[in-house]
Amino acid sequence: GAATNIIYGLALGYKSVIIPVFLLAFVVYFSFTLLDMYGVALSALGMLGTLATCLSIDVYGPVCDNAGGIAEMSGLPEEVREKTDALDAAGNTTAAIGKGFAIGSAFPLWPPPFRGLL
């Protein structure tokens, strides 16, 4: 039934993040063993170096969505709306990918502030 399909989809989604989670854990562990918290902070800053790219990817979706709305409200032909819908679908995909990059680059940032409190 539907519940089985939902559970199966969740399981597949969880399987898809196994490799990135282990890679991030390895980066944090390796940088900690080399340079303690300074290494963790450096790895976090290195990952945050991709922030400009992530933000520019994340902005693509709303821009395409607005273009589709403008095309619809201004009464442009249906073929224009079909093209903006295809761009909007691509924009939703890039927004989802951009969020993953943002979360992944923010992950190593949590240990150094807590270590400073100890």
Secondary-structure map:
Elements: H1 2-16, H2 18-48, H3 51-73, H4 78-106, H5 111-117
Helix pairs in contact: 2-4, 3-4
Give an overview of the whole structure:
- The protein is built from 5 helices and no strands.
- With 118 residues, it is mostly helical.
- The protein has helices at residues 2-16, 18-48, 51-73, 78-106, 111-117.
- The chain is elongated and about 60 Å long.
Given helix and strand content, the structural type is mainly alpha
The major beta sheet can be summarized as: none
* Helix amount: over 70%
Mean pLDDT: 81
User: What is the element string, with H for helices and E for strands?
Assistant: HHHHH
Number of strands: 0
Q: Which spans have pLDDT < 50 for at least 5 consecutive residues?
A: none
**Oligomerization state of this entry?**
single chain
